[in-house]
Write a structure and sequence with these properties.
This protein is an alpha+beta fold and 631 residues long. It has 2 domains: 189 residues, Penicillin-binding protein 2a (Domain 2), CATH 3.90.1310; 367 residues, Beta-lactamase (3-Layer(aba) Sandwich), CATH 3.40.710. The strands form 6 sheets. Strands 2, 3, 4, 5, 10 and 17 form a 6-stranded mixed beta sheet that branches. Strand 19 and strand 20 form a beta hairpin. The longest helix is centred in the first third of the chain and has 36 residues. The C terminus is likely disordered.
Length: 631
């Protein structure tokens, strides 16, 4: 029998529909209310926040890097300039696949793989992805045109005009002024991120580095409105940057040129100081280099040639070169001996051509192996007699020698504003015990008395010690900046105590001996002094590069050129009223009086003589006999 047919329950269906409609209506009302609450929250409660976000998408703050201060010599000659240049910039945020964009740049401009590596390194050093990073400088007109034609292939790439550091004097002031270069990662961590935003270069060496804060200036900014592609539509607000301060140096370009000509292409260093002020009048380290390629990024190949050159053009011999001072320290040794009282101006020593310590067989040779007989202080300086100063060093002892030589600036940094200066070495008993775990031997005191042994000095230290001789112990630290921003530079550096002697006449006694080096009948550099129009007080020196065995004689023909002795000469003039002190070091020049002394004379002439070759009026001597003074 078939099942019964079930009748439809219309009442039940109607109740189901009504309950569903009620539920749907309530859900719709709740959702509508939630939507209205969310809209109220976004549009009313968070109105300021979202307005700011929207405004930031439209308005950007761009940094305006300041113009770097310029550098001049003491006469207003421009040494460091800012030159307009077109650079290629890339903004990572707008470039997308920026590595692909770099490949396109290399292809379009037909550059080599080294350039690709350099560009990538610069991009990775970029501080913010939305800031344009210069990847290539000094674009030519053809390169600018190629970028413009292929702009559709180079998203985020623009050609921007900017000021780039330029050194019109090139290699002439490379070691004193230094150069700027791109900011590296280590420097980036130490710099003020706000003040250096938009700045891509920083002082690396020399004056550019020491006075970086003054030369850099203060960053500015501008608020700009941009479109969706980041292109600037208009400037809304602008705060101008504050340019860096200009610096006038103490260096004189004419004297610098005269010093370079005097070296005549030889490896060496020259420093000229004003002993009355500490101003550095000339500072030459040869060979030198052109700093301009370092500004925008020197190629690996070009840098390798400079770095690996045997002549070391990148090495600042004036500040970092360490050389035995040789006999150039004998005037300072004489001052120490007179002040201590172990000698007088009339003290005499018999020189048979050598000196021997009591109860020792070893002979410490005088450069004149035949000896000079009885030698006084004046003759010992004029002849550069080693035996006299062996005897003096033995009487003084290492402790007192160390004390007096330190007062003359040896073994310490002497300059105010030269970042790269090294301290040199003035040895002592404690130093040797710490360094070698050995005692100090009497023979080491003897050779230290003639500027050999462990002692190491820079040409700047020799110039400063000579300036102290000229000023009779008045300390004025050497400095390169004459004015910064129109004001005298303020450098936080302690001035050493002046050298005050028990008898001020000791300065005159040693000065007369130094004058007789050039103007005395037995002076080692009398040929140079005979041609001078003024009195010069000087001292020659020869520094050994390789040791000579006991009993052997120096023979330059058997030595390689770079193993031959260094030639040194220090001087100040006019002797009666010093206006300039000079230190000259000619690497492997062999003869202090024959090679270095004529170089010093040319530098002195460059400062004291006028264009007609006559002694300037302010340097005319007082009435004084120009004969050799004997004691």
């Amino acid at each position: 029998m078939p099942p019964p047919i079930r009748l439809k329950d219309h009442e039940r269906d109607a109740r189901l529909i009504r309950s569903r409609m009620l539920f749907g209506g309530v859900a719709l009302i709740i959702l509508t209310m939630l939507l209205m609450i969310r809209m109220y929250y976004l549009q009313v409660v968070q109105f300021e926040h979202h307005s700011t976000l929207a405004e930031n998408n439209r308005i950007h703050v761009q940094s305006l890097p300041p113009t770097r201060g310029m550098i001049y010599d003491r006469n207003g000659l421009l040494i460091a300039d800012n030159r307009a240049s077109f650079s290629l910039t890339l903004t990572r945020e707008r470039a997308g696949d920026w590595e692909q964009v770099l490949d396109s740049i290399i292809e379009i401009l037909e550059l080599d793989s080294d350039s690709r590596e350099l560009f990538e390194k610069r991009i990775r050093q970029g501080r913010r992805p939305f800031e344009p990073v210069p990847v290539m400088f000094e674009l030519s007109e053809e390169q600018i045109a190629r970028v413009a034609v292929n702009q559709f292939r180079l998203p985020g790439v623009e050609v921007a005009a900017s000021l780039v550091r330029y050194y019109p004097q090139k290699e002439h002031f490379a070691h004193s002024v230094g150069y700027v270069g791109r900011i590296n990662e280590a420097e980036l961590k130490k710099l003020d991120p706000v003040n250096y935003s938009g700045t891509h270069h920083i002082g690396k060496t020399g004056i550019e580095r020491f006075y970086e804060e003054q030369l850099h200036g203060q960053v500015g900014y501008e608020e700009v409105e941009t479109n969706a592609r980041g292109r600037v539509l208009r400037v809304l607000n602008r705060v101008e940057p504050i340019s860096g301060q200009d610096i006038y140096l103490t260096l004189d370009s004419k004297l610098q040129e005269a010093a370079e000509l005097a070296l005549d292409g030889r490896r060496g260093a020259i420093v000229a100081l004003d002993p009355n002020t500490g101003e550095v009048l000339a500072m030459v380290s040869q060979p030198s280099f052109d700093p301009n390629p370092f500004v925008t990024g020197i190629s690996f190949k070009a840098y390798g040639l400079l770095r690996d050159s045997l002549d070391q053009p990148l090495f600042n011999r004036v500040l970092r070169g360490l050389y035995p001072p040789g006999s150039t320290i004998k005037p300072m040794m004489a001052i120490a001996g007179l002040d201590i009282g172990v000698i007088t101006p009339n003290s005499r020593v018999f020189d048979p051509g050598f000196f021997q310590l009591p109860n020792h067989k070893h002979k410490y040779r005088n450069w004149n192996r035949y000896g000079d007989g009885w030698v006084s202080l004046d003759l010992a300086l004029a002849r550069s007699n080693d035996t006299y100063f062996y005897d003096l060093a033995h009487k003084m002892g290492i402790d007192r020698m160390h004390d007096y030589m330190t007062r003359f600036g040896f073994g310490q940094r002497v300059a105010l504003d030269m970042f790269e200066e090294t301290a040199g070495l003035m040895p002592s008993k404690d130093w040797k015990q710490s360094r070698y775990r050995q005692p100090w031997y009497p023979g080491e005191t003897l050779i230290l008395g003639i500027g050999q042994g462990y002692m190491q000095t820079t040409p700047l230290q020799l110039a400063q010690a000579t300036a102290l001789m000229a000023s009779k112990g008045k300390w004025m630290r050497p400095h390169l900046a004459r004015s910064v921003g129109g004001l005298q530079p303020i450098v936080d550096a302690e001035m050493p105590d002046d050298i005050v002697l028990r008898d001020n006449k000791s300065w005159d006694a040693v000065s007369l001996g130094m004058e007789n080096v050039l103007h005395g009948t037995r002076g080692t550099a009398r040929k140079v002094g005979d041609s001078a129009q003024y009195r010069i007080a000087g001292k020659s020196g020869t520094a050994q590069v390789v040791a000579i065995k006991q009993g052997e004689r120096y023979n330059s023909d058997k030595l390689q050129e770079r193993h031959r002795d260094h030639a040194l000469f220090v001087a100040y003039a006019p002797a009666e009223k010093p206006a300039i002190a000079v230190a000259v070091m000619v690497e492997n020049g062999e003869s202090g009086s024959g090679v270095a002394a004529p170089v010093a004379k040319q530098v002195l002439d460059g400062w004291l003589l006028d264009d007609e070759g006559q002694l300037k009026a302010q340097y005319q001597p007082d009435e004084r006999s120009n004969v050799e003074v004997r004691r």
